[in-house]
Design goal:
2 domains; two-stranded antiparallel ribbon; 153 residues; single chain; 6 helices; flat; mainly alpha
């Protein structure tokens, strides 16, 4: 666990440093009309670096007695990871809404063990509602697949 904490906190400190560096380029001071563009990202980057430094200090003092994840704990994590990876991969070919329907249906049936009626209802209605919210109301285009092209979207 100690090594995982040290590696993750160090990586996030570097990421926080990138945020701080970019924010300084945008300007972190106070202008005539309020804070400049980099003020809030700079503050968040500094806060992130400070929090990660605390984690690094705590992890450095702790003995490396137990592993980050055991074999038994890895199974449930992979049950979540592989369907999510499949969702991302399928989005390239099927579009976001169809891939989300497959993902939701598969996940509800496999992990949740819900009835087929509930699976079909949610797997169809959730992407449909998402389509209307993003595409029609907010006018935010999402990745489309052949089904949406066939429907004229």
């Amino acid at each position: 666990m100690r090594t995982a904490d040290l590696v993750t906190a160090s990586f996030l400190m570097v990421l926080g440093g990138v945020v701080v560096f970019d924010a300084v380029g945008l300007g972190i001071g106070w202008g005539t009309d309020g804070p400049k563009s980099g003020f809030f990202p700079f503050s968040l980057g500094v806060l992130m670096i400070a929090a990660c430094a605390v984690i690094v200090m705590q992890a450095a003092r702790r003995a490396a007695a137990r592993p980050f994840v055991t074999r038994a704990q890895l199974g449930p994590v992979l049950k979540v990871l592989w369907p999510a990876v499949a969702l991302v991969a399928l989005t390239q070919w099927l579009g976001l809404y169809v891939a989300a329907a497959f993902y939701t249906g598969f996940y509800m049936r496999w992990i949740g063990r819900h009835s087929w009626l509930a699976v079909l209802a949610v797997a169809i209605l959730f992407p449909l509602a998402t389509f209307f919210v993003f595409e029609k109301w907010f006018l935010v285009p999402m990745p489309k697949g052949p089904l949406e092209a066939w429907l004229g979207q």
